[in-house]
Design brief:
alpha/beta, Rossmann fold, seven-stranded mixed β-sheet, two-stranded antiparallel ribbon, 6 helices, globular
C-alpha cells in the first residue's frame, strides 16, 4: 500500500482502465442492494488472471473492485434504509473498491462523497459505477491512511479488516477520525482482524455472496459504529 500521493493517471491509462472494467464485467445488481447497479465480475479466477495478462503489468492489486463484498453490501443497505447518516453530510468512503457504499451515500442525499482507493482500477470502476447510477462522486488515489483525517462528517469502511497490518492502520485512522468528532460506520462480517470489542452493532444482515470468494453462500454481516 502506497504511503505517498500517487501520480494522477495519464488520460490514456484512465481510458484503458475503464475499457478493461467494461470488457471484463457485467452491469449487475448486488442481492442485498438491488437499487444499485455495478460493473461486477461473474467469475473470480478469470478476472484475477486477466487483470495482469490484459494490462501487461505484473503484481497489480487483486481486483477487489470487481465484487460486491459482504461488508459493502451491508453498509450500502444500512445507508439507504437509514438516510439520516448521510443526508446533507460530507462522506468519505475508505478503500472504496467498487464504490458501492459511496454510491449508497450519494443516493441517501450526501452533500458530497469522496471515494478513496489506492488501486487505479478501482477508481475506474467507481467512475463507471457512479455514472451507471447517476450520482456524483469524487475520487482520490491517495493513501488516506498515511495522513490525519481531513474534515468530513461521516467515515465509511467496508470490509477492510482482512489483513493484520491493514486492519491496524484502518483502526488507527478510525480512532483519529473519532478524535475529530467524525463517526465511523463499518460494514464487516467479523473477519479475522476486526476488533469487535471496539464497535457496537447497529444492524445485522444475511448477505448473499460469491462462494468462490467466501466460506459460505450467505455471510452474517453487521454494520458497526466505532465506540472506542
Amino acid at each position: 500500500m502506497s504511503l505517498q500521493h500517487p501520480a494522477p493517471l495519464d488520460p490514456q491509462d484512465r481510458i484503458s482502465a475503464e475499457a478493461f472494467v467494461r470488457a471484463n464485467t457485467r452491469l449487475l445488481r448486488p442481492p442485498l442492494v438491488p437499487e444499485i447497479a455495478l460493473h461486477l465480475a461473474e467469475e473470480s479466477l478469470a478476472i484475477w488472471q486477466k487483470t495482469e495478462e490484459d494490462l501487461g503489468v505484473m503484481n497489480v492489486p487483486p481486483p477487489y473492485w470487481a465484487f460486491a463484498w459482504a461488508g459493502g453490501q451491508a453498509l450500502a443497505r444500512f445507508l439507504l434504509d437509514n438516510r439520516v447518516w448521510a443526508a446533507g453530510k460530507r462522506v468519505v468512503d475508505l478503500g472504496s473498491g467498487s464504490g458501492l457504499s459511496a454510491i449508497a451515500a450519494a443516493r441517501a442525499g450526501a452533500r458530497s462523497v469522496l471515494a478513496a482507493d489506492i488501486d487505479a482500477m478501482a477508481l475506474a470502476a467507481v467512475a463507471l459505477n457512479a455514472a451507471a447510477n447517476d450520482v456524483a462522486i469524487e475520487t482520490t488515489r491517495d493513501d488516506l491512511l498515511a495522513y490525519l483525517p481531513a474534515p468530513a462528517d461521516v467515515l465509511l469502511v467496508g470490509d477492510l479488516f482482512y489483513e493484520r497490518a491493514l486492519a491496524d492502520r484502518v483502526l488507527a485512522y478510525i480512532e483519529a477520525a473519532a478524535a475529530k468528532g467524525m463517526p465511523a460506520l463499518v460494514g464487516d462480517p467479523e473477519r479475522n482482524y476486526f476488533p469487535t470489542c471496539r464497535f457496537a452493532a447497529l444492524a445485522e444482515y444475511q448477505v448473499p455472496v460469491t462462494r468462490d470468494l467466501e466460506d459460505a453462500e450467505i455471510k452474517r454481516t453487521a454494520v458497526w459504529r466505532y465506540v472506542g
